[in-house]
Amino acid sequence: MRKNRLSFVVAAIIIFLIGSFFIEKRETQKEKLPTVGVLQFVSHPALDQIYKGIQAGLKEEGYEDGKNMTLVFQNGQADQSKLATMSQQLVQEKKSDVLIGIATPAAQALANTTSERPIILGAITDPVSAGLVKSNEKPGGNITGVSDKSPVDAQFDLIAKLVPNNKKVGILYASSEENSKYQVEEAKKVAEKKGMTVKTYAVPSSNEIAQTVQVMASEVDMIYIPTDNTIANAMQTVVNEADKAKVPIFPSVDTMVEQGGVATVGINQFDLGVQTGKMAAAILSGKSQPATTPIYTFDSGDIIINQKQADKLGIKIPENIREKAKIVE
Ligand code: TRP
Q1: Which segments does the entry list as coiled coil (predicted)?
Q2: N or C: which end of the chain has fewer CB within 10 A?
């Protein structure tokens, strides 16, 4: 009886050891899958679209989460200290082979964490002024990616055609966003060249947005918004306040037109993500190196019009523009 029990215990131990050996082996095999770590700055419709596009782009190039690649996603919720810790996690704990930063502050947090692991920029307005690459043509380090610099000139051409009598433009952006400052400067130049007067309104945080838009509504004929994450995140507030005073909003991207802007010429946010995903795949498979891969830029955008919003504000869309435009609700 005793002997039996002993051999039972021995057998159990052996089975346990063999079992754990296989489980461990499976886990190490799992760890061997290449890891793509994504850090998104904050949630707003544009960045969420970009992340969806990234997944599609990776898939198009044959990388599927759980099959031949592990995708780790983190969202910094617009919090600098969260961005820093999450970057650490993606680099050290998760041992990401390729990192992707969605929006400038996320890319900067990753860049501060590693100068070796490849980083792909997901829709960064100006990688050079953000201190991420030496030049767009020859990035030179461990970073390359996609810029979403918007076609400001075409945007103001469209604005001039839709509201020819509106001459006073107010530009709304967050003073904390490096990426917006660049675009604000450019928009100012372009608008002034087209005979408009420009006033800029920088909000210190999202708390001041409603009040700032109220002030703008009494001082300008229209509101222009660059690709600013803080404003994109509070688009509903901006639209509510501007609607009260019947002031049209001209943002820089499709998603912000969908949220209540009137019109824009913009780069499709999902497409930005697809391009980012494809670049990440090329680096992951060793086909290309960040240092010698130029920053990808889109040279044209689509005309996007929110017909309901235009009707509400009494803005007539000329037929020749409507024909070429994508109409959104
Ligand atoms: N370009 C922004 C950045 O560099 C990120 C961004 C992409 C964005 N698409 C947007 C911001 C749309 C606002 C709206 O941080």
Answers
A1: none
A2: N
Residues 311 and 164 in one domain: yes
Pocket of ligand 1 (CB under 6 A): 46, 103-104, 123-125, 148, 179, 227-229, 232, 253, 269
119-128: pLDDT as tens digits: 999 999 999 9
- Tell me the pLDDT band of 318, cut-offs 50, 70 and 90: very high
Between the CA of 187 and the centroid of ligand 1 the distance, in Å, is 16
| String of DSSP letters for 290-319 | GGGSPPEE----EEEEEHHHHHHTT----H
pLDDT computed for residue 229 by the predictor: 97
The number of distinct structural domains making up the chain is 2
Residues 291 and 315 in one domain: no
Query: 316 and 193, same structural domain?
Result: yes
Atom 7 of ligand 1 has which residue's CA nearest to it?
Answer: 123
Model confidence, pTM: 0.89
CATH number of the domain enclosing 216? 3.40.50.2300
Q: Which residue has the higher pLDDT, 302 or 11?
A: 302
The protein residue whose alpha carbon is closest to atom 13 in ligand 1 is 227
Is 198 domain-assigned?
A: yes
The verdict on residue 187 lying in a domain is yes
